[in-house]
Structures are given as structure tokens and as C-alpha cells.
Amino acid sequence: NQNINVALIGNPNVGKTSVFNHLTGLNQHVGNYPGITVEKKVGFCKLPGHNHANIVDLPGTYSLNASSIDENVVVELLLNKNDKLFPDVAVVVTDVENLKRNLLLFTQIKDLQIPTILVINMADRMDRKGISLDIAHLEDKLNTKIALVSSRKGTGIDTLKQLIADYKLLSTQPCVDTSSIDPAYFDQLRQAFPNQDVYKLWLVIGQDVNFGHLERHQIPNAFTKSVAELKRLQQKETIKRYQFINDTLKVGQKIDASKATSLGGKLDRILTHKVWGYVIFAAILLLIFQS
Ligand code: GDP
Ligand code: MG
Prior knowledge:
Radius of gyration: 22 Å
Strand content: 5-15%
Number of strands: 8
Bound molecules: guanosine-5'-diphosphate, magnesium ion
Number of helices: 11
Strand order of the largest sheet: 2-3-1-4-5-7
Shape: globular
Oligomer: single chain
Mean pLDDT: 87
Helix content: 40-55%
Structural class: alpha/beta
């Protein structure tokens, strides 16, 4: 009967706060522009069985190669095992319409070897966009459990709660072999820090963050790199990750634009058609000349 920590992580605008509100019964402000959640918010969730969870809503972040203060909040929490909110399970929230981009962050979190659940949110938009998913394939390739959620309709939340309750069954295997971005360098890192996860080390070296017992200044000069070199390696890492994601989605996701024929899809396309601009313009002209 213990409180576990659950961190909600994801790109801006994917529905993290909406999922947070469902899990906690709270009513945090939801918005359709980024930057609403600027610091961590904590809520409480009763799980199936006897467990409870602290749910931590985090600012939106595109990757763990932090460049903004918002993103640093996420990196510092994930790299600091001593933080009292350090997650027992990371829930990465994604938007079904932007899976490819959203999965970049998922693969990075997965590679920190924290138990991770993937929420694919906005499931209510799949029909109108002609998107179908092979969940079993995605779970297999990404080495994770998936909850297909619509926080708009409130579906999939019970599945998510059950997955959180069963977090001990989640795999902590990484999904991308990061050491291949510079094998010699990562080998040296591994030898110098036999008890550390090299991907964590790599994140600490790549930016100014501390993680608990291992502070950045403890890393010998031999391992520091020029900013240009770090940027080059980060780019290589991103390319590797997108290769993996593309391969995974090639089988796991089908987007059939011709199937996007539901009323919603038609309405969407009709309402956003640029011809409306001209029609309204003409109507205004007509009104002016008639009066
Ligand atoms: P956050 O930035 O990740 O915290 O995202 P929010 O929870 O603030 O939601 C961003 C926008 O997406 C808001 O306009 C929500 O109403 C909308 N949204 C969230 N979940 C869903 C969903 O399941 N379906 C649809 N259609 N829209 C959603
Ligand atoms: Mg938010």
C-alpha cells in the first residue's frame, strides 16, 4: 500500500494536462497553445487494487537535449534519482496525429531505462484522419505497453490506470542503441564509469544538468567536448532515433487519406478550405454595395 510516482511527459499540446485531470479528478487549465504548464503540478490518483499514485504533470518538451528552462525541469527530474518525485513510471503522452515527431522523446525516455508507458492520445481523431494502428506491433517494437486514449471522450483512462498499477511488469530495456552514435567515445565512457548508464552520462555531458550523486563537474576533462562536436553527435543521435521510429511506424501505423471520409473529416476539410476567405470577402463587398 504505497504511493508510486508517475511523471506525465510529452511534447507541448499533446494532452498531458487533459490526461492529468482525468487521472486526478483535478481541473488544471488546458489550452490549445504551448507553455500552459510551466512547472510541475502534482495530483493524486487511486489505482485499481490498493495502490495510489502521485501524478506529476510536467511542462511540454520536445527532447531531452534540453535547450529551454521548461525542458530542463523534465531532464533534471529524470536524471535525479534522489528527487522525491523521481518517477517509478514515466507516462509518455503523444498525439496520434503526430506520432512520428512525438516518439523521438519516447525513445529517449525509454533509453533512460525507467519503466515507461506510451499513451497515444486523441484517439477520437483517428477516424476522420484515416489513421489505423497495429498496437501489438508497436508494443513489441517499442518494448512498452500502450494505452490508446481519448481524453476528450474519456476513453482508455481505465486501461492507463491498470497499466500504471502493473508498472512492475514493464520492461526497462532501452530501444535504440545510442552507443552507436560514437562507439569509441561511448566505450571510453563505459570504462570510466562502470556503474553508470552511458546514455545518462551522455545527457549530462551534453548539457548543464546534475543528476544526484553524479555532478557534471565530476566528469573528467577528457570527456568534455566542444559545443560544435556535441551538436554534431546530438544530430547523429536524432537521425538514429528517427530511423528506428520510421521503421517501427512503417508497419505499425497506416494513414489512408482516402479513408478520411467521416463527416468530421469532410467538415474539417470544408471549413479549412481557403475558398471560404474569398466567399466571406465577396459577401462583405456585396453587403457594402447593397447598403
Ligand atoms: P498539454 O499541453 O500536453 O498539457 O495539452 P492539453 O491537455 O493542454 O491539451 C491541448 C489541447 O488538446 C486542448 O485544446 C485539448 O482540449 C486538446 N485535447 C486534449 N486531449 C484531446 C483528445 O483526446 N482529443 C481531442 N480531439 N483533443 C484533445
Ligand atoms: Mg499542460
